[in-house]
Amino acid sequence: MSDTPARLLKLLTLLQTGRERTGGELAERLGVSPRTVRRDIDRLRGLGYPVDAAIGAVGGYRLASGTAMPPLLLDDEEAVAIAVGLHAAAGGTVADVAETSLRALAKLEQVLPARLRDRVTALQEATVPLYGLLTGGGEAPATDPAVLTTLAAACRRRERARFAYAAADGAPSRRHTEPYRLVSADHRWYLVAYDLDRADWRTFRADRISGPRPTGARCVPDRRPPTPDAAAFVAESITSHRARHRALVTLHTTMEDAAARLPAGTGLLEPLTPDSCLLRTGGDALDWLAYRLGLLGVPFEVHEPPELVAYLRDLGTRLLNASHRTSPPPALTDPPDPPDSASPNRTSSTRT
Asked: Which residues contact 296 (CB under 8 A, 6 or more apart)?
């Protein structure tokens, strides 16, 4: 790396990781000699960066901790990764964190160079949040920020894209798509796109996408998904797209309590009041939907479908009638004694 200012920035980025790096390691990463590394370290010290050096065969360099530092320096990928994380946090359900993330994202965008600002802006314009999706929590799958920004740019420009995709069982495939929107939900990312090979709209997990590549061909201008709201489309495709019955239910409990009672993949929760929320769910059998709702242990109201409302009324009537019966059970009679083989009245025959 012959550009001294660029090399110094790269060196400072390597030293900011917090661990010691040997002169040989730094020289290899920068593509220069150990002597050049030592000179660059002296330059950084002259600029006010406190670089400590450990003596010995295994010694190395690192930035001193607990010292006032000049402004933080980030490389391109680090800046984009931070912007992606802030955007995801800004779309969260925790008010204080969301507001703080928005402020931090605005400050970051002000200092980003134009080439990065465009990528981050495209991500903001192409992404819509989805709240309340029951994904089961836990650690969210890792998604490459470069994949997100490439897809976001394709959505923004309405440009077709090809990429490799791994199904849930790991089966690989190649997809030719018209990207429409990115959806962030519970720190997970989904792409809503029209699959040109399958002639239908699809939801793709962004963490299963690799090597996205814009083709330069334009998307069909008036092509829109069946549900124009991309977040609603993702929710339906994940929770009830293949279900025979789709249900809309008010649960009289908090969002947090409902999420804890419902298993992952059950549906989508939306807040109504501090003590109630709306559940969008689905199932192939009315009895299973009814039992699942009844076992939640909270009051609820079913708004649709009417078939589920009728089933619950009939089931409730039968259960209520069963609970009102107070008559004693029918008397049980003892079974007759088995015949005595030695009884003189017993006749037997032998077939020959």
From this structure: 251, 258, 261, 262
Q: Which pLDDT belongs to residue 242?
A: 54
* DSSP string covering 186-202: TTEEEEEEEETTTTEEE
CA distance 83 to 86: 5
Cα separation, 266 vs 160, whole angstroms: 33
Does residue 163 sit in helix, strand or coil?
strand
User: At 269, is the secondary structure helix, strand, or coil?
Assistant: strand
Quote the CA–CA distance of 274 and 3 in Å, as a whole number: 58
Cα(148)–Cα(20) distance, integer angstroms: 32
- Which whole-number Å values give the CA distances from 44 to 6, 21, 51, 72, in the listed order? 13, 15, 8, 14
208: which DSSP letter?
G
Q: Tell which residue, 244, 172, 175, has the closest CA to residue 203.
A: 175
The one-character DSSP state at 142 is P
Q: How far apart are CA 11 and CA 29, in angstroms?
A: 9
Query: What backbone torsions phi and psi does residue 10 show, to the nearest 5 degrees?
Result: -65, -40
**Mean of the pLDDT values across residues 280-298?**
85
Provide the pLDDT for residue 334: 65
186 contacts 135 by C-beta, under 8 angstroms = yes
Cα 67 to chain centroid, rounded? 38
pLDDT of residue 117: 80
pTM of the predicted structure, to 2 decimals: 0.56
Percent helix, strand and coil across the chain, each to the nearest 5: 40, 25, 35
Residue pair 319/294 in contact by the 8 Å Cβ criterion: no
- What tokens does 115 get? 């080439």
Only one residue has tokens 């990115």, namely: 182
